[in-house]
Amino acid sequence: MFRSHTCGELRSSDNSKEVTLAGWVQTVRKFGSITFVDLRDRYGITQLLFSESLNDQLEANPLGREFVLQAIGTVNVRSNKNPNLATGDIELLVTKFTILNKSAVPPFTIQDDTDGGDDLRMKYRYLDLRRPAVKKNLELRYAVGRSTRNYLHENGFIDIETPFLIKSTPEGARDFIVPSRMNEGQFYALPQSPQTFKQLLMVSGYDRYYQIVKCFRDEDLRADRQPEFTQIDCEMCFVEQEDILNTFEGLVKRIFKEVKNIDYSQTVERITWENAMWTYGNDKPDIRFEMKLTNLKFPAHAFATRQDLSNLVGAVNFKVFDEAETVIAFAAPGCSEYSRKQTDELTEWVKRPQIGMKGLVFIKCNADGSFKSSVDKFYSEEKLKAIAQAAQAKAGDLILIVAGPEERTRKAASELRMYMGTLLGLRKADEFKLLWVLDFPLFEYAEEENRWVARHHPFTSPKPADIKTMIENSPVIEHAAEYLKHPYANIKANAYDMVLNGNEIGGGSIRIYQKELQQKMFAALGMDEAEQQHKFGFLLGAFEYGAPPHGGIAFGFDRLCSLLGGSESIRDFIAFPKNNSGRDVMIDAPGKLDAKQLDELHIQLSS
Amino acid sequence: MFRSHTCGELRSSDNSKEVTLAGWVQTVRKFGSITFVDLRDRYGITQLLFSESLNDQLEANPLGREFVLQAIGTVNVRSNKNPNLATGDIELLVTKFTILNKSAVPPFTIQDDTDGGDDLRMKYRYLDLRRPAVKKNLELRYAVGRSTRNYLHENGFIDIETPFLIKSTPEGARDFIVPSRMNEGQFYALPQSPQTFKQLLMVSGYDRYYQIVKCFRDEDLRADRQPEFTQIDCEMCFVEQEDILNTFEGLVKRIFKEVKNIDYSQTVERITWENAMWTYGNDKPDIRFEMKLTNLKFPAHAFATRQDLSNLVGAVNFKVFDEAETVIAFAAPGCSEYSRKQTDELTEWVKRPQIGMKGLVFIKCNADGSFKSSVDKFYSEEKLKAIAQAAQAKAGDLILIVAGPEERTRKAASELRMYMGTLLGLRKADEFKLLWVLDFPLFEYAEEENRWVARHHPFTSPKPADIKTMIENSPVIEHAAEYLKHPYANIKANAYDMVLNGNEIGGGSIRIYQKELQQKMFAALGMDEAEQQHKFGFLLGAFEYGAPPHGGIAFGFDRLCSLLGGSESIRDFIAFPKNNSGRDVMIDAPGKLDAKQLDELHIQLSS
Description:
BirA Bifunctional Protein, domain 2, 607 residues, 8-stranded mixed β-sheet, 28% helix, CATH 2.40.50.140, alpha+beta
């Protein structure tokens, strides 16, 4: 050992001890004939004091930032203690030192508040990883992983490794593929998730499986996506939805407690997919704040059972609302006094191409009970009052109304609600609110191919009540224009998403375990029998030999860690992330291969 | 939940309870009007009793092997208890049952002693995994993993994930590669190990890193190799060899205790590589038994400091020994009475092509102190006695002697020693003996290229005493024939292997952390500066910014588990293994790809 103690451990009680420390030089400060060095390692920082007697040696061997230093000396209780440092009560009076390795001047400062830009920090990631903020993130990640493993262990789960070199069965996302040298012209794929393998483990009777496992998706990358990412992947036998929800609420609560010291004792709220869309305009609502949406007008096919309020906005010849498919309002609390400048800014915000609205209608609910709107020309005070009542606006609120085509308008309302939540400080960084979203539609309609696609994945079971509908009806859509009338359009999935502060952190479902139903599902997705056999013959085979009812869930580990760490970016919680072109700029990967390597794999570059 | 209890949990104390069980039908036995069913799940087997009143229902819904069954009933203490079953004190008097899923007749019996052949079991791996023996293996694997994580956690290690999509830098083994869609003509490689990344984490100051991680090597497969395998991968800062040995002896002892309930309290023995080769003929000796080798004759260049015993076998005109480069003997205890048939069988054994000896010489050390050998024609009683003394043979032993070229003969002696150990019952399945092998040569000589290759890997440091030799001498080998006289030939590596019962279970080294030394190492391996920069520029870069002394180790997790489980085959301890052609015969991977997928990846099949 190059040290007897770490740089984070010495205290007053160690006074006069002879110790050896090793670490990195954080700072060198000279005061007259004395030199102070802050020595840093993973565990902390200890101040070293080099007295005059070492000056010759220091001159011959000058210290610099990030030098690796071994220092032998005596622990000394300081008169001027540093309360900001765990070791601030002491310093080390150095008697002997050795420079274990030198350092060039780093390209950026090794501090939380660094002067290094993104590109530079990624190129020198090994230096970036020295910054306390990054270290804290990776330590949090480790703590989340450990908490997860302990909880799942205590609940009877066992970690079973599934293979990485599997078969390409692209559904939705693209696979990364791996040419086989031993099997000419054939390829492995890297798993997008261990989905089918964990189901096979249930068929094999392993009862409760988990894995914290790398998964791979060859998708065009956004800031918060990585080509390789990590999942907490779980599956259980002989369970229904309620069992899964209880088990994994428990997991997240345990993580909150152990990692953030938060007692999440309240009940985790639940909402149906339809209610989420109706009330928040999206399927992963942030429920840290209210500002619920009011659907003043909506197309006949959607939300058929909801109350039609279109009379509130129609019949006054206001073309914007009359021509809009959808009109959605919500009340921003306490904003009735917004200036023209402020409302103009909001209008500009919704007119940005990312949101795509043509404008924004305001109704100010004045403190005196009167109303003032940007559409006073069309709406009487009485009408405005009725709208305000429908939107549950109180005196002092500002009602915001968007109008346009169904999907875009709903998304705009949702985004504007989030934006207002941020503006009003309602999305508090230290508040965590969990939500289960339930009862998703099983299918989405794919217009180009005039067929169904699985909203979650092809292994998700319909709700028990909908199984009959699925079995007894053909999935074929005879009239594309009337796909909404097809019995499959209303089938609900036995699926659930866990949402944290407006982010989906986990999702799963009760699975299909009956061969006939699975075949029907594959058929609905446009697979003929030959394709079913080719891609999933092993799973259909397994379902012939006593497949039990089962279900599971997968959490996005990177996202979960970043949210717990209070960051929007998952990259900050990955030791060696890739950039938006899928490159690791530190090791400079991917790279070119020798012709010999390609030859051995029986492939060549496209000409 | 489809059950209130598992099939392994009910006891006499649960008498009269109403419970619900769910599981698989192991057996159905009809006794008159009563039907007994053994219901199985991961936790055990419970006997169900269907009384006469359920016969109509059973006839309408007949049960078969591997059917998935839910049974509701009352716990009843049995009069005829079954002591072989944890639940053998009770049975369930079934009042209601539901067949949750049917099963076709399985292609082999779901028992430890199955009638299924290897190929069939691999194709239906999901059924094979139901067999208790396989389940026990995967549970043992989980226990080893959990024990490892707990020990390393308690010792300050943190689990940090390293990337799977990296750069191809083949040294020795072939990489699996992954075409990049977003970077045309470029490829990722899957890691053969996280070696450079864990070293960077040390440069970043993470101090103690571990990971239980999948690694990939595209090698031709033997029975005990898999293209994807799992490592316990560890690295530590500011350590010397002694620290690593102590830390990881501790890990293995902890695993022994927690997984096998074995107190491994004895000191872990240590042997130098040279002593291992000298005494056991190989670098991973099984030290559960003695039978040490005696080198009666060996080439001048090898083991230069050892006593020359060639006078014992020479000067009698026995051409076999005279012409042999190497003559090695060992005494098989208590075998002096071996029959002609037995010694003939041993001779045949060493003459097999895998061993490749031309014959075997025997000396029987009779109980009365006399000797009888197969070479009495050449050797006097006195000479035989001298050889027996050198080989430390006692009266009653049988001395076996092999002779031939150095490498092949040493290997033959080693294999014959192991074979005799097995034959004599000295390699006990329930005995575990650990051994550290130390002081390996740093380099091996590659004849074709007339250059050095790293015996361990290019990041292993020479012993401190040899660093100067390495820095100050050119790696170039001027005269191929005299490579043994090159100063590099005698450089020892700061490396260590952990051996368990004759199997290497782990290996590691103290790493190079000085840029100059690392460059010298790369140069010795035939890399010019451009190639060094291209392949390992990031590592050489990292060594410029304060790289600390560090070292580590990696354990073969699959192998470790198989040895603890008492099996020679790692496949038995992998949930979904591949066969010797690298195929997963269950999912039928690898497979062909659509032309579209290849196009997107900018590759095509070789024409």
